[in-house]
Amino acid sequence: MKLYVMPGACSLAPHIALHELELDHDIVTINLRKGEGQTPEHLARNPVGAVPVLETEDGRTITEVMAILLYLAQRKPEAGWIPADVIPLYERMSFVATELHKSFFPLFFGERIHSTPEAVAELGKAYKERLAPRWARVSEWLGGQDYLLGTFGPADIYLYVILTWWVRGIKESLDAYPNLVFFMKRMEARRGVLAALEHENLKPVMA
Prior knowledge:
Elements: E1 2-5, H1 12-21, E2 26-29, H2 40-45, E3 53-55, E4 61-63, H3 65-75, H4 87-100, H5 105-108, H6 117-142, H7 154-169, H8 178-187, H9 191-199
Parallel strand pairs: 1-2
Antiparallel strand pairs: 1-3, 3-4
């Protein structure tokens, strides 16, 4: 398999999954900031010019974090990443994708939405406030257990990557959510997480 990534982007999630599942793979780095996502070659893989993109041995091309994570989970059923009752898994992964992941565009790229620094700052403030009850919701799910479903799986990987953005990218603290702090420390003790971070030249955010 071949996975196209940009270091630190959401593509870090399937990168971690490949290491955790010990699946053979090659990593190709795409620098979206330098326009490499807009080349004809990459647009043929993903018409929106984004990462991640996974190319499989049987010739399939898969985009979107959630789809790739679930595909990889199915590739190695003995890992137990897909429970018998899939609804909680889908619920949590969808929550991360829609309520958390997509909330970061205004935080990272507010200047693409508003033209004045004041408006960009107000937008950022509003989205940080919007995220607060969503962090609390995730914290509730983690209450009394190590991972979102009790045992480690794809939803945890996706959540971990989004939380790295909050800490590393937005420079915000998780101290108000002890469950999230403990979760991040558990994740960054995992060999698969550390291997992917090292490959992307990233340091653990809780170090």
